[in-house]
Amino acid sequence: MGSDLVGRDEELAAITHLLVRAAAGGSGCCLIEGAVGIGKTALWNAALELAGQRGYLVLKAHPVEAETAYSFAAVADLLRPALDEVLKGLPAPQKVALETALLIDEGTDRAPDPHAVSMAALTALELLAKKRPVVVAVDDAQWLDSPSRMTLQFVARRLTARIALLVTERTEDHGEPTIQLEGQRLSLRPLSAGALQQFIHERIGVALPRPTLLRLHEASGGYPLFALEIARALRASSRDLAAIDPLPVPVSLRELVARRLGAISPETRSALLAVASSARPVPELLSPEALREAIAAEVVALEGAQVRFTHPLFGSVLSAEASPAERRAVHRKLADLPADEEEAARHLAFAATGPDEHVAARLERAAARARGRGAPTAAAELMARARELTPESRTADRLRRAVDAAELLVAGRAPGAEQLLEAVLPATSGNLRARALELLGFRRGLGDNRAAPPLLEEALEHVDDPRLELRIRLELCDPILRGVSDGSIAHARRAVELAERSGDRALLAAAAASRAALEGKPIEDLEAAARIEQLARGGVQARLVLAWALLAMGSDAGRLLLNSLVDESLAAGLRTHNSVIAMLAYAESRAGNLRRAKLLANEFLLYSVPEQNKTGESGGLGIRAYAEAWLGELSDAHRDADASMRIADAAGFAGRSIQTRGVLGFVDLSRGDVDRAVASFREAVARLFTADQGRWPPLAHTRLAIPTVLADAVDAFTKLDRIEETRPLIDWLERDRTNPWHGALAAVCRGLTAAARGEHDGAQEKLREAAERLEPLSLPLDYGRALLALGAAQRRGRHRGEARHSFEHAREIFDGIEAPLWAAAARRELASIGGRPGGGSGLTASERRVADLVASGHTNKEVAAALFISAKTVEGHLANVYTKLGVRSRAELARKVASEEIRAP
């Protein structure tokens, strides 16, 4: 290892620091980059040897320069040593996805989403890291197969404790690496003359005189590989190394490698071309004599069950110097060997000299196989090549394969689908045209929410396949995305008819749920559709709509349902998983789990931004901004809300445009800038009533966030005595009198307006009613603010004891959910009252509430949930209660409470 590290002390120190951080429970990524011959692989190997000595689990992959690599080849190499161990611990959906991707189990009839495979790989690494630190090491990342590259990038963005990612990549002329990693980048520099001298001496035992060393350093540019080969040539020449003769310097490093290859027999060089062309070069590709000669010449080495070139340039030069006919002959030979169908089809494609339907058909089958493994991007490459090799006379096949390739690009969130569809759309008709329009609508809809419906409507004019028609109509009647209209209701009704005829229970459930939501049916109708879907085991759309409807009513059951869908939604595809994650982020923020909400919003953004999903990006930023505002991170909240608003406005996402203006208003309300808050709320309200037009239910994608926006707006308006502006907002909240959440918020608003008019008794009555309505809804943000407003009304009405009780409870809630600005507001109100709480027991209002619940038989966890505080806070209050009351058990406490020896403050 010594010679490989000469002159690399700083780089090795950085890698060692990464390894130490991983061992201590941290994580991180390191990319070693540089030009060919700079010593990336040597440093990588040395780092892995160091990790192995320290007891780390080293998982490595070394992709080769072969365009025939099969999907997930590098992932398979990485996980193979520990596969049996990790498969036992994976959740079922992830286990199925990984087994299918790696061809362990091909029995599934449903292709896993690439996201599910990536999540499975991440979970596998996390399982392994529980036992010891893990180093995931990839050499020459520029040659990764595309599914493996996507998986590694996914893992790198989500690394957890005790995992380090170490990657090398060849970059020339300051080019950017092909793999996008956030972490440390080590750009290797050429060695100094002194370091080069030490390197050469340790490698081949030659000590160069200083004049020769300086000339060699200049000639090699300080590149270790280049310098080593020149030194070897000098040693072989048997000349005086101090002589001033010209150095045996080749024109390029490629020429130097060619000279090394020239020293072996033509027969062995020819055989090595097969090694250079294979994604999985095995020793059987060479005769025993050729293998021995190549190993003796240090051109190849055996690594496990595979043959590896000692430097990747050997394979590059062999391929470059071979004639096209020689390369085609090798690919034909490799295609006939037992191999993966995908790899064999790629070899046939490289062997083809022109259009060939036989080869095109093989590529199409290989694309289907790659898609079935959860590698749509690789499948798209194969399908595009199939199209290129389809004879011109087979027009229908060429068009179909083009649309198939576009569909695979869409499935893989890869660029190029729109351009491909636009190019072939004029020549398509019937179902093929409908498919192309559907795909184009989906892609354009990511950037502009208004772009999709017209294209989907046009697709319906051409479709005569009931299954395709059903898929398009489900898109057009999605209540969460499209909202309520006469058209969406008509599409939902037709979708139910088609689903009933199809006999597909999962699709029927999705269609029935959409229709029930759009028609405003009772929640029981949605629950029935959800049960059908759960039994059918085919998607999560009906349950997603049910969760959305439950959240719209203020029920925490919606959040619990979404949490149960997270893993299952992986199998349904990234788009569905995104919907679950986005809605869950919103639900967690409402439930006061603000840190988790922010993490989920970040996760959603990680999915949305790379595929230029503008509506998704706007949603992620908006949800994150709301959580940040409650956490007191007002600058970040304002930045994210403003960005979300601008994207939503440009993308025509009406609901998000309203919501983010509401978040901006809430940020200003939180910092005390009421005038500015009112301006934002006025804009939000104007947009809402323009979009709503009096319909109930309103635009579906406004229902979850809008009630909060309106309640916040009323709070701001009443602070400036603009009571008249609150009336239409309260009327909006009271339109659905069956909705407990809306009713509770309307009561808050009526209490605030009564307080603004100086009606202290009426304000207390309404705000007390609001607090009682909100308490069972598990909505601590709304409940805490209602208590704060109630306390203020009680203080103005000179009910100081009751006010103290309300402010104490509000402060507890805000402390428990980590809402520092609102907790501080509650403390200021308490300070303004002054004095100490009364009562013979000496218990605070908070301690009394805990005592009552514990005495009623509730566990600490149940008390924490009921009061929106942490279990640790409950323990602290309970300890104080025991001390103050002189009791030692819950039974004694219950007797004390029952005897009414504790008076309320």
For the secondary structure, the number of strands is: 7
Which residues form runs of ≥5 with pLDDT under 50? none
Overall shape: it is globular
What distance separates the N and C termini? 74 Å
Percentage beta strand: under 5%
Secondary structure layout plus pairing:
Elements: H1 9-23, E1 27-34, H2 40-53, E2 57-61, H3 73-79, H4 83-89, H5 92-101, H6 114-129, E3 134-138, H7 146-157, E4 163-170, E5 184-187, H8 193-204, H9 210-220, H10 224-237, H11 253-262, H12 266-277, H13 288-296, E6 300-303, E7 306-309, H14 312-321, H15 324-335, H16 341-351, H17 357-372, H18 376-388, H19 395-411, H20 417-424, H21 430-447, H22 452-460, H23 466-476, H24 486-502, H25 505-518, H26 523-536, H27 541-552, H28 557-571, H29 574-590, H30 594-608, H31 614-630, H32 634-651, H33 654-670, H34 674-692, H35 706-719, H36 727-733, H37 740-756, H38 760-774, H39 780-796, H40 800-816, H41 820-833, H42 845-855, H43 860-867, H44 871-885, H45 890-898
Parallel strand pairs: 1-4, 1-5, 2-3, 3-4
Antiparallel strand pairs: 6-7
